[in-house]
Amino acid sequence: MVEVLRPPRGGFLRPFGCGWFIREFLMGNGPMGSPRIDPDVGAPQTDIHRCYKEALHRAYAEDMVAWEEGERIRKKLTPDRIKQKLELICQSIGITPDPKHIQFIVEKAGGNMRSAENTLEQVCQIKDRSL
User: Fold this and answer.
1) Rounded to an integer, what distance in angstroms lies between the CA atom of residue 38 and that of residue 41?
2) Can you give the three-state secondary structure of 7-72, one letter per residue?
3) Could you tell me the residue ranges of all domains in the chain?
4) Measuring CA to CA, which residue among 74, 51, 75, 71 is closest to residue 63?
5) How confident is the model at residue 52, as a pLDDT?
6) Is the pLDDT score of 59 beyond 80?
């Protein structure tokens, strides 16, 4: 019996080809955010491997962020739901949220939970600096 060699969900992580990456890397083009090298000198195999893996991780992270944003848009979080989630986050990190701050964050977020979380983080940092 022949079994298909592939992950059960999502497929293999290959947003770009290994051969293409190595060629571009050794040509000194710095593909996918990797550092540029001198093509006349080259690079050790371990550096090529590390840069390729880091580029794969960056590409995967970008895809996951896009997917998460799409899910949030699809779910269409209401301002009340965002407010509840922000209050839970505040409780989990041990701070008492000011209702004015929460309302400001909810209005600024416009249905985007990631934006709300980032704004909450900024407000907490400003609060910490003022103490």
Assistant:
1) 5
2) CCCCCCCCCCCHHHHHHHHHCCCCHHHCCCCCCCCCCCHHHHHHHHHHHHHHHHHHHHHHHHHHHH
3) 18-75, 79-130
4) 71
5) 92
6) yes
d(CA 4, CA 83): 46
Q: Say if pTM beats, i.e. exceeds, 0.70.
A: no
Q: Which residues 6+ apart lie within 8 Å of 103 measured at CB?
A: 83
Q: Which residue is associated with the tokens 């944003």?
A: 69
pLDDT 10s digits, 76-111: 667 777 777 777 777 776 767 677 777 777 777 766
Contact between 109 and 98 (Cβ < 8 Å): no
- Token pair of 56 as six digits: 């794969």
The amino acid that residue 87 corresponds to is E
Q: Which two tokens stand for residue 54?
A: 């880091």
